[in-house]
Specification:
The chain has 542 residues and is α+β, with helices and mostly antiparallel strands. Among the domains are: 3-159, ATPase, nucleotide binding domain (Nucleotidyltransferase, domain 5); 217-295, Alpha-Beta Complex (Actin, Chain A, domain 4); 411-523, Sandwich (Substrate Binding Domain Of DNAk, Chain A, domain 1), CATH 2.60.34. The strands form nine sheets. Strands 20-19-12-13-14-23-22-21 form an eight-stranded mixed beta sheet, sandwiched between helices. Helix 2 (92-111) crosses helix 3 (129-140), helix 4 (158-169) packs across helix 12 and helix 5 (217-236) crosses helix 7 (247-263).
Length: 542
């Protein structure tokens, strides 16, 4: 048996962890050194065709920024986002697979030859079916040093992993509701969890979650960039649009703005000296200026928290005992300051860059029961058996057992007509314990109907019916071939099965003949996740 590892596949930085033979959760450092995280950046050498991932990719990308790719996590599962580098098209899943290949290589090096049995890969809690499927595909296309492809044990929600790592660090009994505030480089997650720790028995339950996959530290960087650029143009008369589109300036801002933001977490001011078209200016950035320029971004996180809580009939003030900060961007002093002012609750910053990977490693190492019914273990045309429950049971050291109850982060339904209007009739409801299997019976529209094309959507609604406008269609076609000779209104049972990774499986049953029918879904964008995957598998990392 090999080692199971946990991977935090981040927007701007990624991290790998495992539990060693002594039961200690360890962060696996990048092989090249330089810290415990790897920048989620890929550089494709235009001459050799080789690829570089991590810190070196940023350095080499300074010469050829058009050959550097970063922040693809924001577009996982998006069929309309395809990158072209050196004449080769890549999907976000293909780029992510290359990042994962680097992380797996580092883990193999760190483990000293011990094989990797499988990995838990994390994703934002609000990721839908398409983004989770893209993440799974990215992982399963990583070829390890033994020639085998990586086994993806599960796609795990980041806040759940972070809360588990936090809980594992605490050795006292507790009964509390916590709000996990996860602000990373490119994504924002917020999750409410109930922690019930009594002796050697630990129970963790997700209550609700929400997020914004386009909000993260990169937006604070962009706001600071705008301020510096506009200030420079005000002082020199330079053209802001020309400066913003200049490749040299793009690289200069990429290298210096994030460093300045980090500096402002420890100091009250920082100095930047941009130069353009023969002009050079010294610009001072105070923490007050930075906070003012980014206040609207922080407001978005507060509004999202309040809206999420209100939908569940909860409030932070009345129903939350502690706020846990996760994600590198929570190091900005403005975050804790604003949360304290807004809610006046105890705030704990627990390993912002490491907690997610550590929690994933704990699940990978100690998972005892995974009752999911996943794509990989359902035969074609077979209706899966009902799940026995969504609890993940983890066996720790000294007899400590942790149970984690996870919930669906989206609702899933079919297009239907209600009172003459198109609605999405939700079959699986958000915040239902997962994995889950839900059925709904429909009737054929006419006699001798040959097939049904299901219109499948996901949304954030907590209601049985959602509007089409607030929902996302998952498939271009989702065809059910019917048994010949069925009368009109013949009952067809449609089953939605959401596995523990949050990936949807659809099956159908011809009730009249008691025959399971194959469902052939074609995702929006088709096989877009595999664009460039063959090139990635053959790409040499150096």
């Amino acid at each position: 048996m090999g080692k199971k590892i946990g991977i935090d596949l981040g927007t701007t930085y990624s991290c790998v962890s495992c539990v060693d033979d002594n039961g200690v959760t360890r962060i696996i450092d990048p092989a090249e050194g330089g810290g415990y995280t790897t920048p989620s950046v890929v550089y494709f050498d235009p001459d050799s065709g080789e690829a570089v991932v991590g810190s070196a990719a940023r350095q080499e990308g300074a010469l050829h920024p058009e050959c550097m790719v970063e922040r693809v996590k924001n577009y996982m599962g998006d069929p309309n986002y395809i990158l072209n580098v050196n004449g080769q098209d890549y999907s976000p899943a293909a780029i992510s697979s290359l990042i994962l290949k680097k992380l797996i290589g580092d883990a193999e090096c760190w483990l000293g030859g011990e094989e990797i049995e499988g990995a838990i890969i994390t994703c934002p809690a609000y990721f839908g079916d398409a983004a989770r499927e893209a993440t799974r595909i990215a992982g399963e296309n990583v070829v390890m040093s033994n020639g085998q492809k990586l086994k993806v044990l599960q796609i795990l929600d980041e806040p759940v992993a972070a809360a588990l790592a936090y809980g594992d660090s605490r050795h006292e009994d507790m009964q509390k509701n916590v709000l996990v505030y996860d602000l990373g480089g490119g994504t924002f997650d917020v999750t409410v969890m109930k922690l019930n720790f009594v002796g050697d028995s630990r129970n963790m339950e997700v209550i609700t979650t929400d997020g914004n996959h386009q909000l993260g530290g990169k937006d604070w960087d962009a706001a600071l960039s705008d301020y510096v650029r506009n200030k420079f143009c005000e002082l020199t008369g330079a053209d802001a649009d020309e400066m913003q589109s200049d490749p040299t300036q793009i690289q200069w801002f990429s290298e210096n703005i994030e460093k300045t933001k980090i500096m402002l977490t420890k100091k009250e001011s920082a100095i930047l000296i941009p130069s353009f078209n023969g002009n050079k200016e010294k610009i001072e950035i105070t923490r007050e200026i930075f906070d003012t320029e980014t206040e609207s971004l922080l407001n978005q996180t507060i509004q999202l928290i309040d809206d999420m809580m209100d939908k569940k009939g909860l409030s932070v003030v009345n129903d939350i005992d502690e706020i846990i900060l996760v994600g590198g961007s929570t190091r900005m002093p403005q975050v804790e300051k604003r949360l304290q002012l807004e809610y006046n609750k105890p705030i704990t910053s627990y390993e912002p860059d490491k907690a997610v990977a550590m929690g994933a490693a704990l699940v990978a190492n100690g998972i005892k029961v995974d009752s999911s019914v996943s794509v990989s273990n359902v035969a074609e045309g077979e209706v899966p058996p009902p799940p026995t429950g969504g609890t993940i049971v983890i066996e720790g050291g000294a007899g400590v057992q942790t149970e984690i109850i996870v919930k669906c982060t989206k609702s899933y339904g079919l297009l239907a007509v209600s009172n003459g209007e198109d609605v999405i009739a939700n079959i699986i409801m958000k915040d239902t314990e997962k994995p889950t299997l839900q059925m709904r019976r429909f009737g054929t529209a006419q006699a001798n109907q040959s097939s049904i094309n299901l219109r499948v959507f996901e949304n954030n609604s907590l209601e049985e019916n959602a509007t089409v406008e607030e929902s996302v269609e998952l498939y271009e076609n989702c065809i059910v071939e019917l048994t010949p000779g069925l009368p009109a209104n013949a009952p067809i049972e449609i089953t939605f099965n959401l596995d523990a990774s949050g990936i949807l499986v659809i099956t159908a049953l011809d009730v009249t003949n008691n025959i399971s029918k194959e469902v052939r879904p074609v995702r929006v964008g088709g096989d877009v996740n595999n664009i460039g995957m063959d090139a990635i598998i053959g790409t040499v990392l150096r």
